[in-house]
Structures are given as structure tokens and as C-alpha cells.
Amino acid sequence: MSPVTRGWFNRSRDSDTLNGAAEKSAGRTHAVLATFVENRPAVGGVVVVVFAVLFCFVGPLIYHTNQLATNLPAALQAPSASHLLGTDSSGYDELGRLMLGGQSTIEVGLAAALLAGFLGTAWGTTAGYLGGFVDDIMMRFVDALMAIPALIILLIVATVTTPSIPLLIVAIGGISWLNTARLVRSETLSLRTLEYVEASRVVGSRARRVITSHIVPNVMGTVVVQITFSVADSILLLAGLKDLSVIH
């Protein structure tokens, strides 16, 4: 084979390899989306979360209010065309306050829920797929953490440190992944016995590849639903800290 022909052959082979990898990646993405769309609670949860995000972040761009200066003459007004939900005791527009207050709450709640979803998925699929002694150790660790009330952990963190949005995200997300891990692990125990998973193991696929290619796409519906619940739970935990005057 001439050098020119050999070079063309190598480029063609590399191109086929890249195309094959792209097709596999697209196939996995399509499988995840298909599983998600079939799960109606997951779709409904995402719709609610998207609406809340649009309300808090896009709403102020459409409904302009002054949330910096008090306006005592306009205090405690009833709902009207200029103030759709009326005003509070300081003259602030109530609807504008909801939008502004919701921004930081959504940021913490959504980011913490996504972090919890990622941690729970990684932990649960690993424990369920490996099984045996590793599964026992990993899940006993989860049980031990679940025995400690989440609010107590957050109070300790908020007391010994200076609360900030990134810290709250890490703290809330770091204690909210436990239920996700248990649910994902339960589904993984069933999925790992399916024929296509067994076939992938027989041909020599590594555990990481089997988990990312076959297990994770099939548990994403459960994970997305759990993430929507985690958003609400994270917001409630944040509200509890505010009620206790730990954060402002």
C-alpha cells in the first residue's frame, strides 16, 4: 500500500470511529430524553420549575417595581392595576417582592437539587451495580447520615461559618442526595440483572461504561422526579434557616 493510500485509509478509519462515537452519544441522549418524556410526573415537575424560574427572573423585566426605597404613603394598598397584589407595610409592591425574594431562593433550591441529583445518582448506581460488601458499606453510610436531622446539620454549618449562597448550595445539596441514592440504588439492583446489561459485562465492558451507558439512562426518569422534589425540600430548609434568623 502506497503512503498516500495508507494515509487516506487511516483518515477514513479515524472518521468512522468518530462518527460511531457521535452516534452512540446521540443514541444515549435520545434514550434519556425518551425515558424522561414518558414519565409524566417528571415532565410536570420540570414545567413547574421552569415557570417558577421565569416568574422570578424574567418577571421583573416585564413588571417593573421599586424594591430599593420605601414608599410609606403607598403602604398597605389593596390590589390594583398599578400594584397587582397590593403593597406591604413599607410600601413595597408585593408581587415585586415575591419575584425578588424568589430569585435567591430559586438559585439555592435549584442548584442544591441538581447537586443532590448528581451525587445521589453516582452513589446509588455505583452501590447497586457493584453490590456485595461495597453496597453494604455505602448504604450503611447513607443510613447513618439519614438518621441525623438535616436542619441540625445546616444549623451547625451556618453557625460555624458565614452563610453565603455557594455555601448554602453545597450544604443543602450535600445532605439532600440521600433519598435519591436509595431510590437509584433500588432501580440499579433490578437493571443490572437485565440481559443487555449482562451481555455488556460478558464482552468485557468496564463497570463505569456499563453504568453510564445502560444504568444511568434508565434511572433518569426517577432522578428528574426526585430533583423536582428536592427543589421544594431545599427551599423549605432554606426557609427554616430564615425563620430561625440564622440567615437573612
What this model shows, in words?
With 248 residues, the chain is mainly alpha-helical. It has two domains: 1-38; 40-243, MetI-like fold. It is built from ten helices and no strands. The protein has helices at 3-38, 40-57, 59-62, 94-130, 132-146, 150-160, 165-176, 178-191, 195-202, 207-243. Helix 4 crosses helix 7. The longest helix is centred in the middle third of the chain and has 37 residues, at 94-130. The model has no long low-confidence stretch (mean pLDDT 81).
Taken from the alpha-carbon principal axes, the silhouette is elongated
Q: Average pLDDT across residues?
A: 81
Largest sheet properties: none
Share in helix = over 70%
CATH C-level of the largest domain? Mainly Alpha
Radius of gyration: 25 Å
SS element count, helices: 10
**Number of distinct beta strands:** 0
Low-pLDDT segments: none
Order of helices and strands: HHHHHHHHHH
Alpha-beta classification: mainly alpha
Instruction: Look up the CATH topology of the largest domain.
Output: MetI-like fold
* Domain tally: 2
CATH architecture label of the largest domain: Orthogonal Bundle
